[in-house]
Design a protein that fits this description.
This protein folds into 4 domains: 189 residues, Rhomboid-like fold (Up-down Bundle), CATH 1.20.1540; 242 residues, no CATH class; 100 residues, Aminopeptidase (3-Layer(aba) Sandwich), CATH 3.40.630; 149 residues, Aminopeptidase. Helices cover 59% and strands 10% of the residues. The strands form 2 sheets. An 11-stranded mixed beta sheet has the order 3-4-5-6-13-7-12-11-10-9-8, with helices on both faces. A two-stranded antiparallel ribbon has the order 1-2. A hairpin with a 5-residue loop joins strand 9 and strand 10. The chain is globular, with a radius of gyration of 33 Å. The termini are far apart.
Amino acid sequence: MGTWRMKTDDSAATGHGTAARVRGQTGRAAERVWGGVRGAPVSIALLVAIWILAIATSSVISGPSHDLSQHVAIGIRAFQNGWVWTLLTAGLWGDDVLAYLSTTVLLLVVAAPLERRMGSARFTLAAVATQVLGGLLALSVAAVAKVVDANWGFRLHVGMAVGPSTWIVGAAMVASSDMGTLWRRRIRVGVLVFTITLALFSGSLQDVVRLAAAVVGLVIGRWIVGRSARGERIAGTQREGRVLVAIVVAASAIGPMIAALSAEAVGPLAVLRDLFRGVPYTAGEVRDLCEVSAADPECRRGLLELRLSGIGPTLLSLMPSLFLLTLSDGLRRGRRFAWVASVIAQVILLVLSLLNFAVRFVDSLDEDSLFYGLADPNLYRTLVPFLTPLAILIVLLATRRFFDVSAPAGTYRRLAGVLVALAAGLAVLYVLGGLWARHGFDPRPGMTTLLADFPERLIPPVYLQWLDPRLLPESIPATLLYEWTGVVFWIALCALVAATFLSPAIGSDSKSTERARALLKSGSGSPLSWMTTWRGNNYWFSADGTSYVAYRVIAGVALTTGDPVGPPDRLRDTVEHFAEFAAANGWIPCFYSVTGEVRDITDALGWSGIQVAEETVLDLGQIAFTGKRFQDVRTALNKAKKSGITAEWVSFPSAPRAITDQITAISEEWVADKGMPEMGFTLGGLDEVDDPEVRCLVAVDEDRTVHGITSWLPVYQDGRVVGWTLDFMRRRAEGFRPAMEFLIASAALKLEEEGAQFLSLSGAPLAKVEQPDGDADERERSESSSLSAVMDSVLDLLGRTLEPVYGFRSLLAFKSKFQPRYVAMHMTFADPAALPSIGNAVGRAYLPTVSLGQSYRLVRTMIGGRR
């Protein structure tokens, strides 16, 4: 009874505590909203004015009346009549109730925060300038469009545009000018892709005005809010590049869907709906035609159009766009298969669009044609549909290096097998169902006809327009089989392909990577050994299967990652046998970032070596950040406590989306604002953090805002974790400043309680501490080869040169705050004459995607930093 009471009391206390936290979070959220309202008087005043005008003019339900629109909406006629005030008043009305509701959301979620960031005066200037100048630019486009495209130009000429989204979009583009690199790029790409897609496919005057306002905001932003104080970007991150390409591909898929589903789409690319649907006849019209003469081409044309219309055919015609949307998710994840499939899809779309229009153009000259040929075809209307797949194809080819993530071995063989089985099953269903419902087809089919017709059921019907249909359904069962078999196949295809993007991508050879992980977790390794499981490595396994070496071949150099993994008593044999393996393949063996044990072995073999980094180690057991030496660390811990910031362990793959989104944004912003190409090899990024075996320690405040993150890699000895290695370090630019000191100190204290023996703060490349005179043996080894000595001097010079960009020496100085134990890390090689090739391989390993232009800007930044 007492136990039950105690549990009940604990539950009640927990419940009250949870309720109190919820109330506290709700109160803080309400406080932030109220603070936003108080800090954005112009936005709130405009919101009130828009609703008052809507109610006063009875415009809430269906927008302003035609007579009112003549005097408040942007339009060529209004401008010709001298009603120039419409350039401003158009931003105070909406088209319908949905427009007013969406405007309310945009004002509270977008405009108000922008006003708080920019200040009311600059926000007002940005809104007015983009509204007026965007309207003028759109009217100019409308005048030019009438000359280029009479149909679209006419719609723009007689159109009228209202909507506050114009100046909201324009103000957002203005505000992006002084934002950090990451959000500046995301806002600009997102807004431009969205507005360009609507303008080209939907094509209403309001769409053009919105795009024009975005362009104006992009141009005048620097004069209103200035530029960001942060340096210009040298190279965006690989992950961010994937996201941007995925956005572009997704927009290219959504645009034709807008054109296909919208009866009012009039944009220059709205002609692409011809690739997705025909011009439908009504059933009554077809019946009247066929009653006169069943052989009349118009009767057959009507039957064909009925085949292309309806829910099933429309959905099937949209399936390629849905498939591209699925591939865009794979592109976002960096999947190689998604890139290859996207390239193939764009090539097919390009070829089919050319073939479709060519056949229709030629066949339209025949009076008995079954096709709805091109009415007065001209070069413009013929070329426009090819531009989208061609442009996307160019983007994909130019960004090929971003998509290097492979699925586990056998994933797509299994996918192909499932798709073949699915197609076979649908074929059997179609044939058997067709035989059962054969009286519902015209003509009545046999088994051979149904089998021959089945492949066409999987092809979007618009691509079959130049083929006479073998069968036409006349009953409900026949229609279901005829129209929905292909829809089922494509939906299953999209679902199965999407599932492959969710499968873990461990490395280039997943089976070898999994084997290496199993050996590492059951055996022993160095503090850097977990890096051997990262993507990009190949693996050599010893003959007895107890050891392995992770390596990558670059320019003929077999460059390893850290020490060999395996039993310590087999270390010498592992080094020798791997060297023999590399030599047998014509490669130059080079062990990189290895410990002194490997250096001793290679020295005994007559190899040369140099120190390339300095590892910093914290021995746990009796750690206490006391004394003057730890003043900075204690200050960070105390400030965090006063600020309500705590350190929490999370696993990135399973962490809440609110946390992972912040971590991603912090990382991308940090890398972009560093103004440097993203490095790899022994320096991990978000892809390496996204691993269930990696632990992340994040600094969060009471509002669950992430201020910093560190990631820790496990170190195994005899099959158990004995230590952790620091890898990933990122801090919010405007957050808690001593976040890194706080997180590393907190990790040391927490992991010591868990029984960890040590923490490795990892190595600082191209940086080392001054060795005492007693370490003469190390200097003697470095001076044993003149070429090695020269290389050592070159690396020292390179470290000083790269310091303004990468700050490796500053990083080593930062780690010295924790009074670590220093351990030298070495690079060893058999042939000193191969040092130029080895240096090239190391550079390309750290900067695998740097281009010639990025290299130039990197060198310029280094020179500027040294000055």
